[in-house]
């Protein structure tokens, strides 16, 4: 079975995440997709202004019918190192092929991930550009990491330039057009629960 893992802070989940997963799914016939919201991300300074349950619920609304949403990292309640998460899922799915989905910003810093050489022996990376005109940098990084044995697939799709931080900033400053970057059900949830206003 081909299993795709997609980790992130998802604070909030947005159409860039969904587009990434849709494009990856078009290229690979994944048998299972598991979205994993992080607890404490090792590579980002984050103070969450919404609860873990809110992030989980928004992911469930956004990926309904596309993916399972796992609360594993949140339940672990510690720094979310992908290597530990992958070990956990290897115990459940010992004979299956693991793919890990990410945007280019994560690929560029991938050597900094904990036990990265072991990690690349356990997963294949599926990556897409986040910015315009960065494909040559992504390809260069792919070659560098392949020298260490990584297996990397680049999704060649038009980047969809949006980030959770942009959306949080827009909500806080009262810009209504934030809703075009999010699935409708996530917009409704954010408005109903008055999230990201401060
Ligand atoms: P923030 O702005 O808060 O740093 P973010 O938008 O980068 O958040 P994350 O939840 O941290 O979102 O990202 C999870 C994964 O999704 C990462 O691998 C990231 O590179 C990828 N990703 C996020 N947004 C996009 C996008 N617009 N296009 C492609 N990949 C994306």
Tell me what the structure shows.
The protein is α/β, with parallel strands linked by helices and 198 residues long. The chain has one domain (2-160): HUPs (Rossmann fold, 3-Layer(aba) Sandwich), CATH 3.40.50. The protein is 42% helix and 16% strand. The protein contains 9 helices and 6 strands; from the N terminus they run βαβαβααβααβαβαα. Strands 3-2-1-4-5-6 form a 6-stranded parallel β-sheet. β2, α2 and β3 form a beta-alpha-beta unit. The longest helix is centred in the first third of the chain and has 13 residues, at 15-27. It is globular. The N and C termini lie far apart (43 Å). The model has no long low-confidence stretch (mean pLDDT 96). The site of adenosine-5'-triphosphate has 19 residues, from α1, β4, α5 and α8.
Radius of gyration: 16 Å
Using the alpha-carbon principal axes, give the shape: globular
> What series of H and E elements makes up the topology?
EHEHEHHEHHEHEHH
Major β-sheet profile: 6 strands, parallel
Q: Let me know the number of strands.
A: 6
In order across it, which strands form the biggest sheet? 3-2-1-4-5-6
CATH superfamily placement: HUPs
- Stretches with pLDDT under 50, minimum 5 residues: none
The number of helical runs is: 9
Helix content: 40-55%
Bound molecules: adenosine-5'-triphosphate
**What is the name of the CATH topology?**
Rossmann fold
CATH class: Alpha Beta
Strand content: 15-25%
Measured between the Cα atoms of the first and last residue, the distance is 43 Å
């Amino acid at each position: 079975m081909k299993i795709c893992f997609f980790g992130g802070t998802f604070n909030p989940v947005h159409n860039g995440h969904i587009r990434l997963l849709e494009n990856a799914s078009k290229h690979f016939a994944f048998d299972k997709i598991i979205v994993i919201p992080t607890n404490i991300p090792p590579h980002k300074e984050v103070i969450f202004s919404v609860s873990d349950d809110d992030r989980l619920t928004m992911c469930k609304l956004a990926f309904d019918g596309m993916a399972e949403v796992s609360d594993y990292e949140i339940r672990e309640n510690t720094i979310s190192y992908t290597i530990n998460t992958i070990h956990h899922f290897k115990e459940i799915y010992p004979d299956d092929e693991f793919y890990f989905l990410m945007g280019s910003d994560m690929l560029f810093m991938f050597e900094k991930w904990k036990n990265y050489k072991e990690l690349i022996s356990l997963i294949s990376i599926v990556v897409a550009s986040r910015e315009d005109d960065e494909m040559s940098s992504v390809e260069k990084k792919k070659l560098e990491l392949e020298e260490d044995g990584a297996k990397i697939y680049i999704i060649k799709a038009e980047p969809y330039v949006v980030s959770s931080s942009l959306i949080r900033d827009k909500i806080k400053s009262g810009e209504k057009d934030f809703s075009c970057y999010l699935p409708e059900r996530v917009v409704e949830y954010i408005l109903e629960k008055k999230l990201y206003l401060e």
